[in-house]
Amino acid sequence: MTFLARAAGALLPLAILLPLPALAQDCHVTASEADQPRYARPDDPWIYRGTDIPVDENWLFGELPNGVRYAVRQNDVPPCQMSLRVRIDAGSLHEGDSERGYAHLLEHMVFRESSTFGPGEAIPHFQRLGASFGFDTNATTTPTATTFKLDLPNANRASMDDSVHRFAGMVTAPTLSSANLAADLPIVLAERRESAGPQRRVADQTTAVFFAGQRLAERSPIGTVEALEAATQESVRAFHRRWYRPENAVVVLVGDADPRVLAAMVERNFADWRGEGPLTPAPDFGDPAAPAGADPANPVGELAVIVEPGQPRGLTYAIMRPWVEVVDNLEYNRQNLLGYVAAAVVNRRLENRARAGGSFLFAGVQRDKISRSVDGTFVTFAPLTEDWQAALADVRSVIADAVASPPSQAEIDQAVAGFDVAFVDSVEQSRIQAGSALADDITNAVDIREAVASPETFLEVFRSIAPRFTPEQVQEATRELFQGEVIRAVMMAPEPGEVTVADLRTALSATAVASGDARDDTAAIDFADLPAIGEPAAPTAVQPLGVLGTERLTFANGVRALIMGRDNEPGRITVRVRFGGGMARVGADEGVYAELGEMALVTSGIGPLGQNDLDRLAADLKVGFDFEVGDGVFTFQGLTRQEDLEEQLYLFAAKLAMPSWDPAPFERARASALIAYDSYGRDPNGVLNRDLEWLLHDRDPRYATSDPATLRGATPAQFRSVWERLLSEGPVEVDVFGDIDRQATIDALSRTFGALPERVPMTAIAPPPASFPEGGAAATTTLTHGGDSDQSAAIIAWPLGGGSDGIVQSRKLDLLAQVFSNRLLDGLRERAGAAYTPFASSSWPLDRGDGGYLFALVQIEPALLPAFFDEAEEIAADLAANGPTADELERVVEPARQYLLRAQTGHTFWLNQLQGAAFDTNRLVYLPSIFRDVDEATPAELQALAQRYLAARPGWRLQIVPQGGAPAGATASGR
Hints:
- It is built from 31 helices and 24 strands.
- It has 4 domains: 46-270, Cytochrome Bc1 Complex, Chain A, domain 1 (2-Layer Sandwich), CATH 3.30.830; 300-433 and 441-509, Cytochrome Bc1 Complex, Chain A, domain 1; 527-755, Cytochrome Bc1 Complex, Chain A, domain 1; 777-972, 2-Layer Sandwich (Cytochrome Bc1 Complex, Chain A, domain 1).
- The strands form 4 sheets. A 7-stranded mixed beta sheet has the order 12-13-14-18-15-17-16, with helices on both faces. It has a 6-stranded mixed beta sheet with strand order 1-2-6-3-5-4, with helices on both faces.
- Helix content is 39%, strand content 16%.
- The chain starts with a helix and ends with a strand.
- Helix 4 packs parallel to helix 9 (259-270) and helix 25 crosses helix 26.
- Residues 1-18 and 966-975 have low confidence and may be disordered.
- It is an alpha+beta fold.
């Protein structure tokens, strides 16, 4: 027995178990005499003009003489981070007919080369500073705007100022040359190709119907192939010159610095920007309008039936109103809040109807203001069967009843309680709101032409209108939801001829018959009235772990718990319950029940309570109930707060101790899986989602996505039999991390998990060892999809290992995978333009001793599949022969290093590292080296891992090609 094994019950010294640099990092940049912004306007913040919404004085707003508006704010969450946003008020709606896709193309070219970066230098530069590509450094193009984003870790005065300067140069002076256009155009076309398929076809056709007569109907940000291929440096420069002007720009900068420092940085770097020529006004986006001569009493307008083989049936109809720029004042928000409550009541009734055997799988109502083009109420549902008319009538009957008759006060109170909990939670979390989220709040407010309000203001406004939450006023708000100038609808059908536009018009034009069957006026349930889990039992042992006050509790029934108190996240607690053996305990013929369990187990009830009871019970609580089936463990998780912690623990313990077996959630989950199954084969992504885990586990039937025959053969009785066993066996670890009251938490655990009966040992099934498919080019697995002929996907994978004794190795394998990813991006995307998002990733299961893998994945044109495999094999061979360069390693180590520094401030980081440590001491033993394992990783170490895993055997290959498009010589394979 090794020392580490003998140490399983020992407590390690505190000094050993503080593995990361000090949590309290002083990065704050104070103002100097030079930091005196000239154009800040604290007495006249531009975003609040014309409104009575209280100003959030944490923000400092300013306007430069050239028209640039800015907003800056001091924030130290996460510490030492700067969040920069540069928003240009120009998206796809600003494009001319010959420019479709230019806004998005320009987004790419801004990062390619500029006055502050040479060709291809921007992304590597920010990676070396710790900003990961795609997460910390990114941009987005929408119909109304293009926004450039940087979340820079380890920021100080120099790096902040330099980054603002560089971003200013990127946006204001990109190098829009023919060479850069030629480099970026294939990448944009690859992105367009990868996003094609049934979902985009449906989205494009739906947009064309809902926004008929408006620019939004025909201007998707992805653009058209014709316009993109016709782009020239002159035409792209003209678009940039027309819209990239200071008058169209908003700069947001949030960081751990005096706001005057941040404002001065913005002014210093954006004040010299000048537009060329007169300002071009934004085009008229248009308004939704009813067809000429339409009956105002029956305003059914544009309709469409979209036929997509294999896709599930679905219908969305919308009541459309013109978008009107509002005066964003308190009364406007009060009316909005009434509308939210009204919609919540309707949605609760629709869910009740679906649960009670309605003719639709799900349905929902949402009011949305889209792209400054429409103000619409959208009603979406999925019929359970081919009888979509019955489902439509069912949904409309619930809505008609809500419009015709006031709701009960009990229904309103349940909805109001849910919103109140959410708003209170926002106030509690406001002190730790991330700078990136705060920056996004400003750009989002600019986009919809509204102001911003503090969480305290939202809560105050919501509670101020409590007297308005009456049946009469909520009914009036419901009526407003369903009033509009025109009704438009899109029906998706899997087979041609199943439904016609005339059928759809007839069904929507028919008078809806109100039905109150979905109303639920039952009084709320009190936790105090529920049966006890068992006899409370205090822990028999409480031991400190030596990590930031974490303690391990042991109960007589075998349950163990880890608790950690962190007061830097007020009102936030994560509860995670790990139990049993996960997929390793699922029988070879029980995979369908594991699959359906993730959808149906939680909603099947506890004790005497069904789904609706649980909803009423939790209406005024902050609790959650997520469930995950892992390779070696099952996990419940919920986010809560101290005042609701015991109720959260009760829900989890009751699911283990007294599960209910309402068959309705099982039947609904099975219906959902049956409806979705045919859609998997329609594009490469669907095939991957269906088959990849099964194939990587060498066709282990437990990991197979259940086909219709298997689903139809599954029964509620067998579902209960399988999950009764899985819920009852194996150890239980309860992790409670966050803003806890220590003694109250221990007492709540004693009354819930301490009161459980002893667990059944896991002896019934001996799980087979994980296996991995044979590799090599000759053994390439080929699957087909029924989608576009220019789409394919490929994966190459190598087996790794698993188990907590390999934690250190798994951390370095993550770095190796990131180096692999960067090389794929550099080779297939940046140099060849062959793919948009090739990447590599590693998996090392800690809860079982095998089953890990490293894989590289790409979506690419079928003809380029051999190029991907060649590129991936070449990368693997070179990494084994030579290892990464020092610069390659730094480009992945620094983002990982900065992630650790940022993430450790939150309790979920420590939870993720320590989960399982109540039974597995390796989680604790290897914690001290976590930062060192990343920070001190060497090229030689990564080379050794590449030699051990990537060079030891040929990679397993999978390619997914269009039907009839399998490459010559490939062996087709399927299920």
